[in-house]
Structure formats: structure tokens, C-alpha cells
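Table 4 source record.
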Amino acid sequence: MHTGSRPTINKLLSLSAIAVTMAIASSTASFAQTTPAAILPSEPAPDLTPQVAAAPTPDLRQVECIAKIIMHEAANEPRIGRVAVAQVIRTRIKSGRFAADACAVAKQHGQFFDVDAFEPQRSTDGWSDAVAIATDTLNGGGDEVAPGALFFHAAYSPMAGRVRVAQIGGHVFYR
């Protein structure tokens, strides 16, 4: 073979490659035109990431009763102390020794104050936080701060005859 045919062969190979590329493009376009839309993806694939179910919304009256107790009894305590107060209410509900819901626990004779008469200022960050703590507590959230505590009292006035569980801020928590 002489040197004059090499450029011709290369030219033919290049032309063949262009022809093949055009044929593929043409058949793809033809396929897209003749294929039903249901076969071709027209939308992004659905998100298959597992979804976490939202916690149920507790009864707003129950949230309000616990939030009022937090505000009245522990508004000046550190957040962990406010959580502990809310958890005392939850522990009482679960114990079977007290009433079956937060408002009834709050209204038991000699336990708390008149939650119906108490009207905290609701436009404060303290109220918003109390509502968040109450909601989380009623949904079963949060690590136990004073495990098993059914009572709390001011640290300067201990409760005789009760098992001390923890002291948080100005409160001592008991079983």
C-alpha cells in the first residue's frame, strides 16, 4: 500500500464515525417520538427515603396545664429543672396512684395550685418554652431527669419520709 491511501482511509473512517453517530442520534429521537410517555421518565424519581412519623399532638388542654405548672412552680429554674417538674406530672399519670391526665393531677387536693385561675403571660419566651417542654413530655420525649420522681419541693424545706432522687436548682425531687 502506498502513502496516498492512508489519508483516504482515515477520511473514510472519520466519515463512517460521523454517520454512525448521526444514525444513533436519529434512532434515539425516533424512539422518543414513538415511545409512549408512560415508558419514558417525565418526572424525577420519587423520594424513597424513609419518613419519620411526626409525634402525635397531645391534647392542648393537657399541654396548657403542664405549662402552667412549669411557669408557676419552676419559671426561675434552669431548663432541666423545668423538664423535671413536667416529668413529675407524667410519672404521676403513669403510676396509677394519681389521676389519669395532667389537668386532673394538677387539680388533686393539696398538690398544686388552681391552674384554672392562673394566667401566665403567654407572649414570653418562658411560656413558649414551657409549652414545648409540656408537649415533649406528654409525647414521652426527653431523658428522665429525676427518674421515678413523684414529688418535688423547695430545697430549703425537705420532705420527710420520701426517697430523694435528685436536686435540680432550687427543687429536690422525691419518690
